[in-house]
Amino acid sequence: MTSGLIFTYRPPTLLSSRARELRLEIEEFNSEYCAVLDANRVEDWPRFFTLDCLYRITSRENAELLLPVGLVYAEGKAMLVDRAVAIARTQMFAPRYMLHLVSNTRVLEESAEGEITAEANFLLLQTLVEGATSLHMAGKFYDRFVREHDQLFLKERQVVYDTTLIANDLVYPV
Amino acid sequence: MTSGLIFTYRPPTLLSSRARELRLEIEEFNSEYCAVLDANRVEDWPRFFTLDCLYRITSRENAELLLPVGLVYAEGKAMLVDRAVAIARTQMFAPRYMLHLVSNTRVLEESAEGEITAEANFLLLQTLVEGATSLHMAGKFYDRFVREHDQLFLKERQVVYDTTLIANDLVYPV
Amino acid sequence: MTSGLIFTYRPPTLLSSRARELRLEIEEFNSEYCAVLDANRVEDWPRFFTLDCLYRITSRENAELLLPVGLVYAEGKAMLVDRAVAIARTQMFAPRYMLHLVSNTRVLEESAEGEITAEANFLLLQTLVEGATSLHMAGKFYDRFVREHDQLFLKERQVVYDTTLIANDLVYPV
Q1: What is the DSSP letter of C48?
Q2: Beta-carbon contacts of residue C103 (< 8 Å; ≥ 6 apart)
Q3: Ordered per-residue pLDDT tens for chain A, 174 residues
Q4: Neighbours of C (≥3 Cβ pairs closer than 8 A)?
Q5: Can you list the domains of chain A with their CATH numbers?
Q6: Closest CB from C30, C39, C129 relative to A8
Q7: How many CB atoms lie within 10 A of CB B149?
Q8: B138: CB partners within 8 A, 6+ apart
Q9: Which runs of consecutive H residues, i.e. helices, occur in C91-149?
Q10: CB contacts, 8 Å: A121 with chain C
Q11: Does the ipTM surpass 0.95?
Q12: CA nearest B97 in C: which residue?
């Protein structure tokens, strides 16, 4: 699957009033998305995606070099479901808490078909039980949204992290 | 006092247009609330609460087990005022700076009586004078707001932190 | 140049509906501003300022004591351009990634001439290549905006940081 996303700066191309409306909607989408993950309800996570979605977690270096590799790479909702089930079963994530902070949401484009290109910055904090809170991952969401039944769904989410030290073998979604 | 709050994920139950309106209002409330605390004006802090308020700071583990304990527990505005005066007098907080970042605000419910249930994620940074900035506390606000004279007030704020290492004996409000 | 900014808490003085409108606009401004910096496009950074702008990065201690000193001090857009060119040429910043998170935006005043006074909290993360992500700087933007051709521009940005340990000699803009 080819991604239409660009991992460098580009200015918005839509009217600012429309960008405002979509920005607020996407903020609400991301708050809901993160609340599900932070509550450790990983099996509920695939519902935010379209059937033919693309989901990847990769480093900024890889993204900028347009390398297709990633820490996580999933094509299609079925792969997200498999992944979610695997994580929920192994429960390796029970003894830690996750907390997302999302900000700087930018809407860049809206196509004639209603596909929306957007970005946001995130900070993911991890707290080990009986331990301290650390910066687990920080980076940007590069997203393409589509609307179905008046709700937004992710057709593509590329989680591009600045942080280069990731400890987990089986990575929890971001 | 019994709290009606639930410390696990639940989806919003109100119309998204109404949730939007309230979300923006609560963001502005929290920005004001945090600006007061970050400016070290702790004696001004109780004004954000109702007379019969409940305020608690507790760990995520305690909250999820529904344990009533907490690092800080205050029932009624008078207790907040006492606490604020005590902190202001001891001035143990003068040699440090606090900075709140609040994001991911979600509005979950609005009752027929106008009581609003909402959540937000926060990051509290602390900088010791001549020292480095550290992640002091990260977690969620679980809130119930009521409206009086067209302004929001906190009837309940449960500050539930992921971070488990808290150094201070006399805890500054969050 | 004298700055009309005050580095302590003060409540907003404008109507909340107008503050809302301006807050959303300033959030969008800051997201764009940060996206440019985080993409390492420092030469594009001066375009956010007016010709007669004031830009300073200083510590909270200096700001509160009203000391005019700063880590960075620039009067007029020409000085920002010089600075941007110098940074771009030395390219000392290539081997690190920056990521801004901005939140808690507050609009305090709007003058009869349309000058807007506002604040926001920021967190600036730095990731060294092959290294970990660290809290590089955390603090507040104290801003004055003016509108030209229906767009906002910074007449003044005072970046006031809580963090007191800054390693760089030639400081990248914040």
Answers
A1: G
A2: A101, A103, B101, B102, B103, C120, C121, C122
A3: 456 688 989 999 999 999 999 999 999 999 999 999 999 899 999 999 999 999 999 999 899 888 888 888 999 999 999 999 988 887 655 578 899 999 999 999 999 999 999 999 999 998 887 777 888 899 999 999 999 999 999 999 999 999 765 555 456 777
A4: A, B
A5: 16-161 (3.10.450.50)
A6: C39
A7: 5
A8: A99, A125, A127, A133, B121, B122, B123, B124, B161, B162, B163
A9: none
A10: 34, 38, 99-101
A11: no
A12: C162
Structure tokens at B142: 């679980």
- The pLDDT score that the predictor gives to residue B157 is 97
Residue B130, Ramachandran bin (φ over 0: left; ψ between -120 and 50: alpha; else beta): left
Distance CA B134, CA B65 (A): 28
Smallest Cβ–Cβ distance between B123 and the set A24, A101, A134 belongs to: A101
Q: Are B158 and B56 in contact (CB under 8 A)?
A: yes
Comparing CB atoms, the residue among B39, B100, B125 nearest residue C8 is B39
Neighbours of A103 (CB within 10 A): 26
Please work out, in degrees rounded to the nearest 5, the angle formed at the alpha carbon of residue A124 by the alpha carbons of A122 and A126. Answer: 175
A–B CB contacts, 8 A cutoff, strictly below: 70
- Residues 6 or more apart whose Cβ sits within 8 Å of residue A138: A121, A122, A123, A124, A161, A162, A163, C99, C125, C127, C133
**Cα(B33)–Cα(B124) distance, rounded to whole angstroms?**
13
According to DSSP, residue A43 is labeled G
**Minimal Cα–Cα distance from B153 to chain A, Å?**
23
Name the pTM for this structure: 0.94
Pick from C45, C43, C18: which is nearest to C107 by CA? C18
Model pLDDT for residues C33-70, shown as the tens digit of each residue? 999 999 989 999 999 999 999 999 999 989 988 888 88
Partners of C28 on chain B (C-beta within 8 Å) are none
Percent of chain B with pLDDT over 90: 67
Q: Would you say C171 and C57 are in contact if contact means Cβ atoms under 8 Å apart?
A: yes
Cα nearest neighbour of B99 on chain C: C139
